[in-house]
Amino acid sequence: MRFRWKYLEALGGILTFFGTLAILPGCPYFILFAYGPCDLSSSEGQTGLVVATTGAVLILVGEAARRKKPNAKPPLGDNPL
Prior knowledge:
Elements: H1 5-23, H2 30-33, H3 43-67
């Protein structure tokens, strides 16, 4: 059975979503600007940041692996000798 990379990307999207929800109480403008007055000193904020970063990395890895094409073998009649 072949591994479907879309499952890895879906898991990354879910982790990113829930990580962002955990960050929002400490950083109210995180979704719009991703900077500003943030207080991630709470364990929720730190955990949310780690979970969101892990989710984003899973999305990137899944996307890169899904786009990677196997080396195609040339047809038998096109072998230049």
